[in-house]
Amino acid sequence: MKNKWKNSWKSPEYNAWMHMLHRCYNPKDKAYKSYGKLGIFVCDDWRNSFDKFFEDVGPRPSADYSLDRIDSFDGYKPENCRWATRITQANNKRSTRRVEVNGEAMSAREISEKFGLDYQRVRSRICQGFSPEKIIQAAPIRRTHWEHGTIYAYIAKKCRCDPCKLAKHQNRKATSN
């Protein structure tokens, strides 16, 4: 059968397909350690056929879009892939911490945009372990006193008691996940 894709290697869709395969199956690719080595795979239909890949994902909407996995812990397959912008992809990274606000899991960026809050403040509140209600408060939280066993006590007040050290350890563990 003749290839129906004239100069397909020049298309952004073909390049996305090739890069997807390299990330997952080429140990020499610099992204392999974050994809193939972690078990991220490409479904057999897509692995063996660019035509099937293109049929399932369609043309890229514009140059602002690239291939994205909806569930970043799952592989490349029709029900898990889409064309997405950089912002959408940044909110969908494995390393992005999510907080459940009003029944919806959201990143710091999504919370700041939805509630009109300063991104850095929201991010800081998430890192300090604030409750969802306190994270979305518009006014800055002013500490009139500090408590042992908080990341604030460890960092700002330089307290090195056991509860504060434990808070630092738990915060580091939470941010590394």
Please tell me about this protein's structure.
- The chain is mainly alpha-helical.
- The protein folds into three domains: 84 residues, no CATH class; 48 residues, no CATH class; 35 residues, no CATH class.
- It is built from nine helices and four strands.
- The chain has a two-stranded antiparallel sheet with strand order 1-2. The chain has a two-stranded antiparallel ribbon with strand order 3-4.
- α5 crosses α6.
- The longest helix has 15 residues.
- The mean pLDDT is 86.
Radius of gyration: 22 Å
The ordered string of helix (H) and strand (E) elements is HHHEEHEEHHHHH
Structural class given helices, strands, pairing?
A: mainly alpha
Strand order of the largest sheet: 1-2
Count of individual helical segments: 9
Q: How many E-type strands?
A: 4
Helical content stands at 40-55%
Low-confidence stretches: none
Relative strand content: 5-15%
State mean pLDDT (0 to 100 scale).
86
Number of domains: 3
- Overall, the morphology is elongated
* Euclidean distance between termini CA atoms: 48 Å
Q: Quick one: biggest sheet? A: 2 strands, antiparallel
Spell out the blueprint of helices and strands.
Blueprint: H1 12-25, H2 44-48, H3 50-57, E1 66-69, E2 81-84, H4 86-91, E3 99-101, E4 104-106, H5 108-115, H6 119-127, H7 132-135, H8 151-155, H9 162-176
Antiparallel strand pairs: 1-2, 3-4
Helix pairs in contact: 5-6
State the gist of this model.
The protein is mainly alpha-helical.
